[in-house]
Amino acid sequence: MDLKEMRDEQLGRHPWETARAAALAGLLEPCLHQGMSVLDLGCGDGYLSRTLFRHLPGSRVTAVDPNLTPGQLALLRERGEWIAYQTELPPEGSRFDLTLLLDVLEHVPEDRDFLTQVVARHTEKGGHVLVTVPAFPALYSGHDFSLGHYRRYRLQELEGHLASAGLAVVAAGHLFASLLFPKYFLFKLLDRSLVAAGVGCWKGGRILTSILEMWLKLENSLMILLARRG
């Protein structure tokens, strides 16, 4: 969750968040192991790290977000002692088995240079990097602007950034295809850019949440399978 969307966790998680976490867990499963070190850049409220690594014994997670306030840091540190939350990057040379850049690059003006520096300074030899970004430049809207997004990406463009950073692309694809038209309608045609609360203000009931979550999880599983088959 983007910190601009952060709300009381008791309101419940948006089905997009829970389905996204499930998809990322499946993608990461082959490279997860006990005692691994993880760098979560742009961690937001820490939901993904808490979800993905809570059952991984001995894992060490450094979660970084420069926009965390002192109050948010205190709250997040109370939630999980095994995650080290901070607002600055670790010292150069601190290397990690897995680096997460989940919806981060779109916030960075010089995204290619930033990615290259992160990989060179913090990724262990033989380590893995997982990157997610908002797709399709045609969908860029006032909602993106309100969240501090500089751009949306085409898949080939992102793969080019990864290659220039010295990474070999193991797998690439899209998620949440069924949300493309609703996003275009709400944020492009209706220009609901003032609704910046986004996923942070989900108030759907238990039944609606379960249905949407199940649908999105099934859809993402299908899209991952299709991507793996080319």
Walk me through what this model shows.
The chain has one domain: Vaccinia Virus protein VP39 (Rossmann fold), CATH 3.40.50. The mean pLDDT is 88. The protein has eight helices and five strands; from the N terminus they run αβαβαββαβαααα. Helix 1 packs parallel to helix 8 (206-228). It is globular and about 45 Å long. It has helices spanning 15-28, 47-53, 70-79, 111-122, 142-146, 155-164, 180-189, 206-228, and strands spanning 37-41, 60-64, 83-86, 96-102, 123-132. By secondary structure, it is α/β, with parallel strands linked by helices. A five-stranded parallel beta sheet has the order 3-2-1-4-5. Keywords: Membrane, Methyltransferase, S-adenosyl-L-methionine, Transferase, Transmembrane, Transmembrane helix. It holds the Pfam family Methyltransf_23. This is Methyltransferase type 12. It comes from Citrifermentans bremense. One of its GO terms (molecular function) is methyltransferase activity.
Task: Please supply descriptive tags for the structure shown above.
8 helices; 230 residues; Rossmann fold; alpha/beta
Task: Please outline the major beta sheet.
Answer: 5 strands, parallel
The total beta strand count reads 5
CATH topology title: Rossmann fold
Roughly what percent helix? 25-40%
User: With helices defined by DSSP (H or I, 4 residues minimum), what is the helix count?
Assistant: 8
Low-confidence sequence ranges = none
- The radius of gyration is 17 Å
The CATH class, by name, is Alpha Beta
Q: Strand order across the biggest sheet?
A: 3-2-1-4-5
Report how far the terminal alpha carbons are from each other: 30 Å
Strand residue content: 5-15%
Q: What class do helices, strands and sheet pairing give? A: alpha/beta
Number of domains: 1
Q: How would you describe the shape?
A: globular
Give the ordered list of helices and strands: HEHEHEEHEHHHH
CATH homology-level superfamily: Vaccinia Virus protein VP39
Q: Indicate the CATH architecture.
A: 3-Layer(aba) Sandwich
Query: On the 0-100 scale, what is the average pLDDT?
Result: 88
